[in-house]
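Q: Given only this backbone (383 positions), what sequence would you predict?
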């Protein structure tokens, strides 16, 4: 089988790195419309058996030709393209995975289920960290308990050495970050799927030294399809992003001032889109490519054999100094690469459009993560 990664940025490069190291694909390809980004990826992926080529996803004709050449396509480009790419995948009978980032886009992708099934295509949106890895953890909880009272997912990608004023660094697209902070958080509560404003519900969360007390608050996208998949199996699900204390309040003030708005504003004879200007500012001011860490905790409680049981998961994953790969790259791209390899080796062989929790086998997935040094600790406690 042959596989192609769209996008040669941090996530696309990490995907190609993992595929070249662990997979059995006959051909691994990575494309981008930005030649400078592609050259940077070439340097990072030197001595790896990977093909590089220029492709503009805005060019539908070239895009369709490209899809026809490959068995699996992975999107590591902004989420706004994913529905269009999923449609091309169905049409060209190409399996398709993406890193997600937006509830509305994923909802559109789900409408392609019947056509994907008819054309024997597997489409899996939201394959990264959260959703993605956290979705498979949620499946593991459901499979471990007879009934589930709650699942509370807490995840964050952070600099190891935070710098004021925001104590944050660019670990993925700022557009995705702003979207997570602005769009509503989706929560499952006693059979009802409800929306709550993001950047609310701040709580304290404790990690070992050197992190100690952190904060977590509601954000968009993290639950993805979980509330729909497990509507009849879990009473309550929510997702919160982990940050250093004080980050939420500071960033929320900026968004409350309108810096996340998409509507054009006129200044003299110039038109400015606040969100575009804000993204440019963040890219210029915030640190990038510095040593980072990904923190994860998932709390759950339910019944097993008539007894109250809590199952809690935790993970602390650090920057890979040997290979110069950030923790966010590792924990986002490696799960996606593993899922693609499951399609390649037949471990995943169902057709249609699925959330990770519907189709990714838990134990094999966790075992593959462990091979890559991503260790998830699982603790069970009876009440």
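A: Predicted residues:
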């Amino acid at each position: 089988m042959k596989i192609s990664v769209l996008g040669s940025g941090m996530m696309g490069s990490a995907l190609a790195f993992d595929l070249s190291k662990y997979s059995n694909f006959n051909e691994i390809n990575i494309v981008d419309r930005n030649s400078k980004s592609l050259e940077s990826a070439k340097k990072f992926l030197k001595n790896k058996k990977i093909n590089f080529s220029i492709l503009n996803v805005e060019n539908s004709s070239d895009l369709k030709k490209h899809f026809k050449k490959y068995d699996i396509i992975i999107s590591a480009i902004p989420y706004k393209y994913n529905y269009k790419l999923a449609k091309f995948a169905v049409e060209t009978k190409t399996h398709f995975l993406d890193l997600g980032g937006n509830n509305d886009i994923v909802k559109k992708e789900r409408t392609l289920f019947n056509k994907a099934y008819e054309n024997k295509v597997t489409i899996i949106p939201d394959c990264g960290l959260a959703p993605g890895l956290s979705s498979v953890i949620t499946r593991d909880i459901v499979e471990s308990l007879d009934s589930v009272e709650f699942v509370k997912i807490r995840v964050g990608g952070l600099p190891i050495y935070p710098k004021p004023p925001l104590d944050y660094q660019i670990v993925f697209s700022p557009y995705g970050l702003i979207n997570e902070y602005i769009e509503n958080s989706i929560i499952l509560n006693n059979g009802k799927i409800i929306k709550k404003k993001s950047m609310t519900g701040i709580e304290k969360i404790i990690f070992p030294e050197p992190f100690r007390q952190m904060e977590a608050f509601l954000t968009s996208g993290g639950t993805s399809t979980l509330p729909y998949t497990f509507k009849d199996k879990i009473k309550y699900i929510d997702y919160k992003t982990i940050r250093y204390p004080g980050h939420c309040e500071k960033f929320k003030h900026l968004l409350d001032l309108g810096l996340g708005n998409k509507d054009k504003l006129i200044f003299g004879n110039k038109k400015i889109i606040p969100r575009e200007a804000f993204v440019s500012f963040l890219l210029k001011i915030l640190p990038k490519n510095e040593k980072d860490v990904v923190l994860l905790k998932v709390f759950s409680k339910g019944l097993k054999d008539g007894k109250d049981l809590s199952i809690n998961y935790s993970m602390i994953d650090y920057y890979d100094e040997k290979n110069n790969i950030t923790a966010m790259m590792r924990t986002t791209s490696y799960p996606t690469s593993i899922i693609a390899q499951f399609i390649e080796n037949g471990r995943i062989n169902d057709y249609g459009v699925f959330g990770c929790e519907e189709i990714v086998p838990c134990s094999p997935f966790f075992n593959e993560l462990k091979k890559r040094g991503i260790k998830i600790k699982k603790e069970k406690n009876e009440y």
